[in-house]
Every structure is written in C-alpha cells, then in structure tokens.
Amino acid sequence: MPNDIDTVVYDVSDRIAWLRFNRPDKRNAMSPTLNRAMMAALDELEFRDDVGVLVLGGEGAAWTAGMDLKEYFRETEAEGLRGIRKSQRESYGWWRRLRWYQKPTIAMVNGWCFGGGYGPLFACDLAFAADEAKFGLSEINWGILPGGGATKVAVELLPFRKAMYHAMLGEPIDGKTAAEWGLVNESLPLASLKERVTEVAKVLIGKNPVALKATKDAIRRVCVMTYDEAEDYLVRAQEAANSFDNHGRREGIRQFIDEKSYKPGLGAYDKDRNAG
Ligand code: ACO
C-alpha cells in the first residue's frame, strides 16, 4: 500500500519492502523534504514483522541525481549555518540509519546516480544496477569537492587510481563499468533488474535474520580494525547474537549433523523448523 509521503513511496509484498525515491520530474534529487520523508519511511519499515529485506529504488529515469542543488544547497544556504547544518543532519541521518539498518538492504539502481547519491548507495548492503544506469561524482563539474561522504565512499569502494580519476574528471560511468569497478555487485539490463533483485532478496529472506544483521554490521565494523581487534569484536558479536537467537544456531547444526537435511556449504537450514 503506497504511503502518503509523496517524495518517497513504498510497497511491501512477499516480505520485500520496495522503497523508492519519488521525484521523477526532478530526477529524484534529494531535497530536505525528501530526506525527512526517507527517514520517516525507514522508521516505519525497520521493525515490521512483514519486512525481511528493504530495496531502495527510484521512480522514473533516475535512482537519484544527488542533492537538490536548489532546495538542498541554495535555499538552505540562504538560511545561514543553522539551515545548512539542519539539512546536512537530515540527509546524513537517514544514510547512517540505512548503513546500520536492522534488515538487509539492496540498492536497485535503475538510472542516474550522482554525487550525494553515493551516500545511500554505500549505505545499502548490496547494490545491483541497470546497464543503462549512469554513476558520477559530478561535484567537480559544478565546483565543489565530493562531500557528504561521497569521497569516502569512492575510496572505500574503488582502488586509489580509479577513485582519483572518478572524482577529478567527473565523467559518468555506466552500470557495467560500475560493476567492474566494484561500486555495485552486478549490472544487468534494466528489463531484468527487478527480477534479479527479487531473487537475491528471497535468498536473504531465507537466512537467519539475527545472523544476517550481525554479519552485515561485522563487515562494516572490521574494515577499520586491526586483525586482533577484529578477532575480538567478532567473538563478542557472535556471543551477543547467541543471546538473541541461540536456538537458531543449534537448529542449523542439528539439521546438518543429525537430520542431514541440508549442507551448509550449499545453502541455508530451514529456519522455520525448530526441534527445540
Ligand atoms: N538538483 C536540483 N534539480 C535537479 C537535479 C539536482 N541535482 N537534477 C535534476 N534536476 C531537475 C532539473 O533542474 C530539471 O528541473 P526543471 O524541469 O524544473 O527544469 C529536472 O530535474 C529535469 O532535469 P534535466 O536536467 O532536464 O533532466 P535530464 O534527463 O536531461 O538530465 C541529469 C538528467 C543528467 C541527471 C541532469 O539533470 C543533471 O546533470 N543533474 C544534476 C546531477 C548532479 O550533478 N547532481 C549533484 C551531484 S553533487 C551532490 O549531490 C553533492
């Protein structure tokens, strides 16, 4: 059922929340209004029992053309530092929320993805693009550095030379190149994009949700740790996960060792069965 916040829309079906940027006439540029609506939608969806995976897509020809140059920059700058900081908090706020979201998240990049769009792109755990999509750090083309985390995203996801080239030249790349460079997991024709994302979402829905949340957080956390720190963090994270869901772990072992009903190397245990 679409909600009533019109810069953002979502539907939930078969445990997938399809959340979309919805300013197609403005190429889904992120205005302060849209940023507030995104936070509200993320709030609404995060702990719903009927949501297993969240997919972030875009209505129309764009995923998002980045920050709204008029409403996010020009108009908030006119309000002085108070306005600037407020709009920064709103945008960075929902991207941060998305980076640490309770449910697994997938960016489904159907079209244009520029500048500030790299914030939510990186915030999603996985990303699939249309071959036809175009990605760019276009900031240099209108005279600023890639801020709002975009430079950090480039350096996190791309090798040094590619990050430097991407940020300094401001040339857009297509979905296939984005996949080759590691900005997204895969690129495929737009006509097949939703089907592939649905397939991946269904696999995620079949996994233990406590283990998924612990895993996605661990991947982000250990990036900046030494080996020893990571080893320690992972021990603690697993112990914390056990306190939420120890029976799931035991059941996973039981179905393999005792029941021989699946092979963990090849797929997930049936989390809907529990022998206790
Ligand atoms: N901010 C504000 N308005 C925008 C933005 C944006 N980022 N992107 C598109 N729009 C608006 C246009 O002003 C236009 O509005 P209008 O119909 O009222 O004139 C409408 O969306 C359609 O845009 P067009 O440029 O006509 O669409 P087209 O399909 O030809 O081009 C493209 C799409 C390439 C995405 C182009 O709009 C563009 O270059 N947008 C800016 C991309 C960008 O550099 N974003 C900022 C990144 S930096 C950052 O986010 C910090």
UniProtKB/TrEMBL annotation:
<dbReference type="InterPro" id="IPR051683">
    <property type="entry name" value="Enoyl-CoA_Hydratase/Isomerase"/>
</dbReference>
<dbReference type="InterPro" id="IPR001753">
    <property type="entry name" value="Enoyl-CoA_hydra/iso"/>
</dbReference>
<dbReference type="GO" id="GO:0050547">
    <property type="term" value="F:feruloyl-CoA hydratase/lyase activity"/>
</dbReference>
<protein>
    <submittedName>
        <fullName>p-hydroxycinnamoyl CoA hydratase/lyase</fullName>
        <ecNumber>4.1.2.61</ecNumber>
    </submittedName>
</protein>
<keyword id="KW-0456">Lyase</keyword>
<dbReference type="Pfam" id="PF00378">
    <property type="entry name" value="ECH_1"/>
</dbReference>
<dbReference type="InterPro" id="IPR029045">
    <property type="entry name" value="ClpP/crotonase-like_dom_sf"/>
</dbReference>
<comment type="similarity">
    <text>Belongs to the enoyl-CoA hydratase/isomerase family.</text>
</comment>
